[in-house]
Amino acid sequence: MRLYPKIIAELATLCSFIGFVYTFYPDYKNYGAKEWIIIGIFIISFIITVSITIYDHLHSKSKSFPIDKKDKIKKYMNNWIKNTGRVAIFTRDMSWLDEKSTAILIEKAEKKELIICLPKEIDAIKAFKDAGAEIVVYNVNYDPKVRFTITNYGLATARIAVGRGSADGKKHIIDEYKMGENFCELGNDIVSILKTLNQNPS
User: Fold this and answer.
1) Nearest-5° angle of CA 112, CA 116, CA 119?
2) Rounded to whole angstroms, how far apart are CA atoms 166 and 168?
3) Torsion-angle region of residue 159: left (phi > 0), alpha (psi -120 to 50) or beta?
């Protein structure tokens, strides 16, 4: 849902409440402290809700990187995976790896906090596999158009970063979503399905 409809929906709720109060208590000049406190609490709640909505929007919008600025993409991914919690990666070649991200992921692998899903095993994941990562190879001859990384996988606080190329091929775009939003739910489902298929091959 876009930002403006969310704010309009919150504003409509506030107006409905004010309209409800005015319908039953039209003489606002006779309002006592109790009535004004209730109205004040509702207005403050509205301001807080809108502020959180705007904050989430600003921090969830697409990040765009020039395709040749690999260092910026790697820096973004390092910041994305560095916090505690399980990480699930759906990838083709782990092209964003560098020395820092490798160290972070090896530490997570040792703690059994790393899942990597990819179409075939590659040399880049050997160190993670040896360290204890769960490697899910789905053996399909298909190049995914998007890749994603989920942090806090399996928790209500999970977030997903979905990477894709721009239409003109000049930029790498990363969209962020949190649990409860469709893309995050879909990412969790994809990882869960691939894990199940990997454990129970036909």
Assistant:
1) 150
2) 5
3) beta
Q: pTM of the predicted model, to two decimals?
A: 0.67
Q: Tokens 């190329």 label which residue? A: 165
Give per-residue pLDDT as tens, 150-173. 999 989 999 999 998 888 888 888
Contacts of 37 by beta carbon, 8 Å cutoff, 6+ apart: none
Work out whether the CA dihedral 185, 187, 133, 77 comes out positive or negative: negative
Length of the chain: 202
| Interatomic CA distance for residues 126 and 49, integer angstroms | 46
Q: SS3 of 95, please? A: coil
Residue 195's SS3 state is helix
Write out the two tokens for 8: 């309009």
Q: Token pair for residue 5?
A: 């409809």
pLDDT digits (tens, 9 = 90+) for 60-110: 567 888 888 889 999 999 999 998 899 999 998 898 999 999 999 999 999
- The C-alpha atoms of residue 106 and residue 114 are separated, in whole angstroms, by 8
Mean pLDDT of the 14-38 span: 74
Where would I find the beta strands (DSSP E) of 17-113?
A: 63-66, 87-90
